[in-house]
Specification:
Elements lengths: L2 E4 L2 E11 L8 E10 L10 E5 L15 H6 L4 E6 L11 H5 L4 H8 L4 H15 L5 E6 L1 H12 L4 E7 L9 H22 L3 H14 L12 H5 L10 H10 L2 E2 L2 E2 L1 H11 L5 H5 L8 E2 L5 H6 L23 H4 L7 H9 L2 E2 L5 H5 L5 E6 L7 H10 L3 E6 L10 H13 L8
Parallel strand pairs: 4-5, 4-6, 6-7, 7-12, 12-13
Antiparallel strand pairs: 1-2, 2-3, 3-5, 8-9, 10-11
Helix pairs in contact: 3-14, 4-5
Amino acid sequence: MISYTIPGMFVREHEVEVPLDWADPGATITVFARELVDPVRRDEDLPLLLYLQGGPGGKGPRPTERSGWIGEALKTYRVILLDQRGTGRSTPITGRRMASFATAEEGADYLASFRADSIVRDAEHLRTRVFGGAKWSTLGQSYGGFLTLTYLSQAPEGLTACYVTGGLASIDPSAAEVYRRTYPRVAAKTREFYRRYPHDVERVGAIADRLAADDVRLPDGDRLTVRRFQTLGIDFGMKPGYERMHWLVDEAFDGDELSDTFLGQVLDRSSYAGGPLFAALQESIYGSGAGATGWAAEAERALHPEFAEDARPLLFTGEMMYPWMFSEIRILRPFQGAVEVLASRPQWSSLYDLDRLAANDVPVAAAVYYDDMFVDSGLQLDTAARVGNLQAWVTNEYEHDGLSAERVFNRLTELVRSVGGGVRAG
């Protein structure tokens, strides 16, 4: 076992072998996690906090200093940063791996093994194998909240308390309903961006006009299309997203041509090089029981002509994945056949046990960001009303990345302590 110290944090690394398919053990993969603890308390018997990263396809944080929610948590807990299967050092899914499958169906079956139910089984294996079966609390950010609801459905006996930030999934999963609600939210966010920076309306339009008229290439050789440019609106769901977009378009032109600075930044923000699983499984996280997801974001977009590539002012899109991305974006091309199969898959494993959630007695505190662009607050509040022992803190002070503020984690732990759950501050 490797151990070392980052300033303010003692670190241990853990790896366990788990089945690729928990329902049919055979082939195995590796799951990796980092354990953080206050260096002066490294030998104490401290409670455990498992962090469930957003995504899908998000690896655990790589901390460089003791700050933010991690700094707060280390006052009380050993913090476990899990690289969910398929990410980071947990047998990552790569284009090379996807290209190795003989058929698209084989690739789809492989991808389907990386959903929430398998991640929860991995976490339980890690808890019992590495941490001696001690119960732990969880902190789920965004998709980590989806995982939390699956955890409460499958293995609540392993949990002492759950904290969720911007991630109470609908427990009646429907990709179509999610996008029906989020397209208007993205449109509103774009209008707010233009209200804040009205001179960017013309500049964004000029960029789109140039992309529509010319064959503009990104540094990796991909063509930059208007629709790929529109996907950068995903950043509007984060607190500084408007500002990042403003500074991006501020330096878009070098004379009459699009600048190398602009093109390089667009590539960084839209290539999915750091996490292709995020795009590949985005709609599949809503598959549960009978029914195909059916490229729901693409179908809903067709009902909103205001998002057309030639509409002005140009509207950006958000956390939506489209079939064309898997042909236009180099990193995603090896996934194309498999994701097409997944989109038409008629039957999925069930992610949530509604009866068990209704009877839940594990204390849960959830931050519901009222203006969240990614996880609709209406759907979150419906879930909150249907999960036992859950307290919802509704706020419009934060965007989807509100966990970056220390107050959010502290507020959630206060809520759980107020009903006699969790642990006292150390």
